[in-house]
Amino acid sequence: SKLTSLGHLEMTWRSRVRFHPLLVRILHKSRLRYYGKPEKKMDMPYQAYFEVADGSGMMSMVLWNSLCPEWYNSLKVGTVLLLDKYAIKTSYPFKTLPTPGDSQMKRFATIEISLNVRDPPTEISIIPEEMVKPEWGLPEVKYRFITRSELDDLPHNHSCDVIGLVTFVGRVERARKREHSEDFWLYRWAHAIDGTSNKPFILELFATSQPDVFERIHPMTYLVCTQMRVIRDLTENPPSPIYLTTSNESQIFITGWHKGQPYTKDVKVKNFIQWTKSQSEADQIKKTVMGGYYPFPRPPDSFFKF
């Protein structure tokens, strides 16, 4: 069929009602958002953002309402899509934006692709990876993996991806989303090592839209976390330890979920796997801990400082 590109869409969308099909690859995936309210009677008040790209650049794609339970789990980072009968809208200005793995990629930020069950009813087709042709010019998924030895030099709020061997995972805790609110965020703390430092990655892992993975994080699993943000507070004396927290676009993977993921081709991931092969499993198991209360950042050592 006759295809269009994201770049062409941005230039011509105001003058068109009907758009040609799009061929894109998913580069980022947000957590699923529930926006239901008691006074609004909606059957499926769900929404999810994806960042999709072709040879011309990258644009946001929004999956709405009943399409979310139908498609969300099938649309993975790296998936190639053929989209038809979609709508184009001006971008929502306040949503979070992931940091692209390829810093040279052009981002089309003024408009977004809207996928709905009606007005018009979108047609979504997943193209199997073995049928994807090089001449389509679709970009590969790129990552920003760092090692533990590189972490201490990174600035606050820097975006990165990490892989490590889990040595500690805490119990699931919860924090109020807003003061006096009855909605809570679920999160747990984890430590992971990668052999490049005697210090672990300290990871604050909020529950993403992957409950099957979040509940199964345990010591000795290979943990991959993407789109993590560096948190460091240099105002304290001494400075509190640096840690990483999940963002709206973070994805978490553990042993059993890695097969077929695009990051398995990354050089730093391959280096980590080589390091784990040189380790004694029995020695590492002795150093692992699970559960319990993990006060972090640690409280001051005296009431006076508190």
From TrEMBL:
One of the Pfam families matching this protein, by short name: RADX
Example of a GO MF term: single-stranded DNA binding
Highest taxon of source: Eukaryota
InterPro entries on file: NA-bd_OB-fold, RADX
Protein name (record): RADX protein
Biological source species: Ptilonorhynchus violaceus
